Amino acid sequence: MTQATRQVHLSAPWLDGRDEELVLETLRSGWLSLGPTGPRFEELLADAAGARHCAAVSSGTAGLHLSMLLAGVGRGDEVITSPFSFVASANCAIYEGATPVFADIDARTYNLDPAAVEAAVTERTKAIVAVDIFGYPCELDPLIELCERHGLALVEDACEALGARYKGVPVGSHGHPTTFAFYPNKQITTGEGGAVTTNDADEHELLVSLRNQGRLETSSWLLHGRLGYNYRLDDVSAALGIGQLEKLDRILGARAEVAARYTELLSGVDVEPPIPDDADHVRSWFVYVVRLPETAHRDDVARLMRERGIATAPYVPSIHLQPYMRERYGFHEGMQPVSEDCSARTLALPFHARLERDDQEYVVDALRAVLSSA
Ligand SMILES: Cc1ncc(COP(=O)(O)O)c(C=O)c1O
After folding, report:
1. How confident is the model at residue 209 (pLDDT cuts 50, 70, 90)?
2. Does this model's pTM top 0.85?
3. Which of 82, 88, 96, 114 has the greatest number of CB atoms lying within 10 Å of its CB?
């Protein structure tokens, strides 16, 4: 098979001269870690998410781990989460000695099905990690109600959802700790990085201490009031984050346009496109994922697309079927049938804010051709 000359990448960050200027300014200031830029980034991010407080951290995974500590999760506890997510949504519970418990998803939204969560609650359940997968907001109201009724902590994994809105209110501002992530495939990037928003001042104070080796607000550099971590975000990364937040609306608008164009181009192609927004759910476009028909072999489709120079990804494998999960907990096929079926049939197409119509047409034409042959 000859190598295709045209290449369409899966994702690409939006970086420009303003980002370079801000990063350079911070480098020249000499404040490379805990300078004035981090707090400015946090303020802008809190504004964007409509939250009272925001603590920047070194990754989304770090933010989820700290959220487990806020929730008081520990050895012997169970934490319910979605199997249809990135592994960090479940790993954060394991880090604290708790057991991840999976509840199945709604095949339409790919997010946790509140009825399945209810059925998974036991006397050992301590918290729920609700994920906004692919930037589509999860069913927060039923989950909040369920947590209140059972005395559980709610933690939101919005790593893929900066800019999404649930019932008209931005994700991150509903009160409970909400984690965002800024790896370069995300809506905005800081290289590596993340943040946790909360409306609770005490939770925020604890986050700030935990990410900084357990130092207390009043303590000197070498005095540690509690066990903490080095989960700080450095000022150079925060400077890039400021450049990204300054154009957040443009980035989100461009991503929504690219998504709308895909949906239009895909009409008549035998795939299920992502569901549209409704009055309660406004998605922030993270990836554009289609569901292939049952008859198509997803991995063959991906291979044939790759031969045409088009990158795709099998987003996302079900977490409970990852090798280490099977080994540790004895999880197996058939435990989360909806998630497993979605995992077998979903395919992320190349997607980013500056993807040109021409490339999208090339991707869709290739997909149409591949599906009729695969
Ligand atoms: C749903 C979800 N949770 C958590 C994470 C972890 O974020 P990070 O890679 O910044 O640790 C990601 C990142 O891909 C994610 O998509």
Report:
1. very high
2. yes
3. 82
